Amino acid sequence: MKRLPCAALAALLLLPAHGAADAGRADDHAPIGVMADHRHDKGEWMFSYRAMLMTMAGNRDGTQGLAPDQLLRSGSGAYRVAPLEMTMTMHMLGVMHAPSDSITLMAMAPYYSSVSMDHATAMGGQFETAADGLGDLGFSALFPLAGNGTASLGIVAPTGRTSHRDLTPMGESVLPYPMQIGSGSWSATGSLTWNRQRAGGSFGAQIRGLVRLDDNKHGYRREDRAEATAWGAWAPRPELSLSLRAKYSAWSDIRGADPRFARALAGNLAPTVDPQLRGGQRLEAIVGLNVLLGRHRLGAEASLPLHRDLDGPQLETDHMLTFGWQYALE
After folding, report:
1. What is this structure's pTM?
2. Residue 163 and residue 177: Cα distance in Å, rounded?
3. What is the DSSP letter of 29?
4. pLDDT tens digit string along 48-62?
5. Burial of 73 (0-12, 13-18, 19+ CB in 10 A)
6. Quick one: average pLDDT of 215-241?
7. Percent residues over pLDDT 70 in the chain
8. Where is 118: in which H helix or E strand?
9. Which residues pair with 293 in a beta bridge?
10. Counting beta carbons within 10 angstroms of the beta carbon of residue 11, is it exposed (0 to 12), middle (13 to 18) or buried (19 or more)?
11. How far is 17 from 148, CA to CA, in rounded Å?
């Protein structure tokens, strides 16, 4: 199991952070893929929409890439089924409201319109499974800190399903951990953000984490997560900014195990049913664009992995695209 980089991330806690956004420049907000990065003044509202597209292709164990034959019994591996590729399309609706200058409330609702995984079998066949539906709802409060900082504390409610099923060569089956949209557990979230503007640009950083608070009804907890990101933005014009961001993510293995996968796990059906093959860490570079059109802000980001170290065999993330819209009301 990968250890979460708590000591490294904690160093960023000493950084100051900026307060309420002033909606005057495209880089008043962080790049579109950064959540809970700003506060609002009393009475303000902001509505947002994000579309996220992720592609995972190929397997990795540690830092070593693996071909399907290295996983399957028909080659040099131990499994009857190997995942080949996973794609995900997720839509996130958000709303922020400031009942006072000292607190901004935020709610986020994710909907997965498509989650699909392609597989190869040791018998030479291939098949695909898919799922969709509402994910876990998030609720947070953002507060100012001494030194003009911003902190968020929140809770994630287990509203997403954990029993998605689809047709496989073994008949209709419960889909493995990566294909379950919900966690089934209550989770706590928190973040600290720093963002400073200068003439012609801005820069900032954020750390954030998610911790599962209880086992779900199937007797396991999904991955805890920690992230650290830092960015710089160049604003050649007030209504336009370009950004470059680095992001480090680490996540734990699953604690406990789903008893519905006991036979599949004992028979080495596939690595996706093993709760001890879910952790890892990733470093990625992300380029972005923000455009301000009156009260409307449009954003886009594209990521490229620089380093991946996984408790595998496990599918590796190759690309992530994020498109977003934000609308502010006073």
Report:
1. 0.90
2. 10
3. S
4. 999 999 999 999 999
5. middle
6. 97
7. 92
8. strand 103-121
9. 296
10. exposed
11. 6
